[in-house]
Predict the structure of Glucosamine-6-phosphate deaminase.
Amino acid sequence: MEVVIVPDARAGGELIAEAMASLVCRKPGALLGVATGSTPLPVYEALSAKVRSGAVDMSRARIYQLDEYVGLPAGHPESYRSTVLREVVEPLGLTEDSFFGPDGTAEDVQAACEAYDRALAEAGGVDLQLLGIGTDGHIGFNEPCSSLASRTRIKTLTEQTRVDNARFFDNDIEQVPHHVITQGIGTILEARHLVLLATGEAKADAVAHSVEGPVSAFVPASALQLHPHATVVVDEAAASKLKLAEYFRATYAAKPAWQGL
């Protein structure tokens, strides 16, 4: 994996937004996979600023959602569809027609999972997938011990993940759904470029295990080591447990600027 250590979350957001903008300039109809939560917000803020300034035209880009809660009613403000519309699609000046995600309200959830995988394939595959990482090393909602070959499917959230996400539900864990639809690790690995952003000391152990540890289903994000083009962007706090931090700094500093991420 390419590891880039940045001073803070804002710098990480700017760097990834520049990579997305560069991709869209080369390929206007690029398919961007997005993640939710607080970590990627600096990316979306920086990218929307580029749109407002005229630095990039996102009008033909397509947005695909990584995961979705099961059982929240349509339009619920904390559904990931609502979140992506609010934080990504609308600020980038896109229409809802450019956006697709798994259907967490479907009566047949398994069929909805299969339909989502087919839709990704029919759209030509994800060009750049933005990922976050959980404190236990999960990506998407692929919790520890998820199959590294898994496809989009329904998953049961661990208690820790529900605790982590309770802040979005008035700190009331009882409001946090127990199940989600998520792209599987096998599905995620089919994207042409994977970019994982992690910030804060709470993510330091997960980052170190994912980057420097063995590839293991116990640390789902470690599967990114198998990908031919995976970039991990971390701030100083999230990088604090990396044994090879100085090597990563030197490697990125020596990389030609024109190569980008």
Remarks:
- The CA atoms of residues 41 and 133 lie 14 Å apart.
- The longest strand covers residues 230-235.
